[in-house]
Design goal:
5-stranded antiparallel sheet; mainly beta; 2 helices
Length: 188
């Protein structure tokens, strides 16, 4: 009887492995094993540190006129900074679930809820007064001059030049004249 039980146990084990690996039965149906179904599926579990699936770091803009930057990714963390400029470009440097850690052009960092951000691209004029040209060339006519701190929208970038819109003026600026894009980044 002992031998018979071990043979039956071996047969059950073999059949169980066949079911786990997937076995075909007459009629062409393939059954996946119950053991595989019991395992948690990794594609259904989302990594909270890569919640959006978008590249990090990346630039976005502030969607609302006032945003609280918190010390951690939750509404219960203390507020460290308050941004009060709608459409200001910021850089997302980290994600956790629905929270984004952002950095501004001066290096201030904090966590905000994703609903306070927009995927639109923006520019912030930095340094000194900058020239906006009609075409992506230094010798093209001047369309406008922009003071430091002016915020606008980023339309597209090619090589060292980007098309921007600032307070109703549209034209081209050198990428180094504003904050809101990465060196060599192509934007269409």
């Amino acid at each position: 009887m002992l031998v018979r039980r071990s043979v039956l146990a071996m047969l059950a084990l073999t059949m169980g492995l066949g079911a786990v690996c997937g076995s075909a039965v007459p009629g062409g149906t393939v059954f996946a094993g119950a053991a595989l179904a019991a395992e948690p599926r990794t594609e259904n579990r989302k990594d909270p540190t890569r919640a959006s699936g978008l590249p990090i770091p990346r630039f976005v803009t502030v969607r609302v006129g006032e945003v609280n930057l918190r010390s951690g990714p939750n509404g219960s963390y203390p507020i460290e900074w308050v941004f009060r400029r709608k459409d200001m470009p910021v850089e997302i440097i980290q994600e956790f679930d629905t929270w984004r850690r952002i950095r501004d052009w001066e290096g201030a960092e904090g966590w905000v809820h994703q609903s306070a951000l927009s995927g639109r691209r923006g520019v912030l004029i930095v340094g000194q007064t900058r020239t906006v040209h009609e075409a992506p060339r230094s010798d093209s006519p001047v369309a406008a001059r922009a003071e430091p701190g002016v915020i606008g929208s980023l339309k597209k970038c090619r090589d060292d030049w980007c098309e921007v819109e600032l307070k109703g003026y549209r034209g081209w600026m050198k990428r180094a004249d504003f904050w809101g894009t990465y060196a060599g980044e192509r934007i269409e």
